[in-house]
Amino acid sequence: MELGDTSRSWQFVGREVFRSECDVEFPRPRGVGLTMRLDTARYDAIILDLDGVVTDTVSVHELAWRRLFDGVLRHRVKRADGAGRPFSHEDYLTYVDGKPRHDGARDFLASRGLKFRRGVPTDPPERETICGLAKRKDGYFVELLAARGLRVFSGAVRLVSELRRSGVQAAVVSNSRHCRMVLAAAGLSALFPVRVDGIDADRLGLPGRPDPAVFWEATRRLGIAPERAIVVEDAETGVAAASRGGFGLVIGIDREGGGEQLRTCGADVVVTSLDEIEIADARAVARSHELLKPSRRATVTNSSAEDIPTRGRIDVQ
Length: 317
Fold this sequence. Notes:
Blueprint (H helix, E strand, L loop, with lengths): L9 E3 L11 E2 L10 E3 L6 E5 L8 H19 L12 H8 L4 H11 L18 H19 L1 E4 H12 L3 E5 L5 H8 L7 E3 L1 H7 L8 H10 L6 E5 L2 H9 L4 E5 L5 H7 L3 E3 L5 E3 L2 H6 L8 E2 L7 E4 L5 E3 L1
Parallel strand pairs: 2-12, 3-11, 4-6, 4-8, 6-7, 8-9, 9-10
Antiparallel strand pairs: 1-14, 5-13
Helix pairs in contact: 1-4, 2-3, 3-4, 9-10
């Protein structure tokens, strides 16, 4: 069984929360403050980062990086000057968050005085190169995701569903090579027909954020101009990329109290949850023909991530 093979269909065994057609609606929770209303006439598309905006996979990525780096530090750093201290959350935010995996690995290791050859993309996980270490981290990510389960932010699903019913297109971007796997596991593939992920970035030679290349590639696939698109990001590098890219609206998600930094990086508006955003013609949308017809409803009690219990066996078919 090849856990890293994202070309196969993934079936998570357990209580089904999402169908593969993405037919679940999330109503906007009562009592959540409204920060802004979107005028859909001004925008043709919304582009969201996957990790930390649509799914709570940031924490899983961070754990995978910690497992990788702590192992490297234990074996490679013998000095007593603090260079061998464990990988921290601050290290993740400073050196890894929002970057392509090879850049993040290189930058963190350099901060501890360690230099590795870049290697080549075909390097196996056990090879001590940047490419090999990044591949090892990918394996840890898949293992942790299977053990911990997948969490989805209901506010993102609600907002994108409403926008699509209003005629606004949607795309998702991710540095991860597992974007398609995660979307399929959450049953969100139909909601995001346009995706630009780590595999696409490597194939096309797209530079990582804060360069806006991945967002521009998303607009190219959508067939729209950047100024007609909304970008939603939770990482400072991603917000900076969208701001530099000339997008019509840049929304920052502040999940850790870093709202001011997101504004400094170029966010036009900062929210703690996408449940704070409502589209101006929401009532008309509710009366219109639904793009995604619900066959069941998921119970959401608040605007935090909704657990999808995926612990246990994973069948790869």
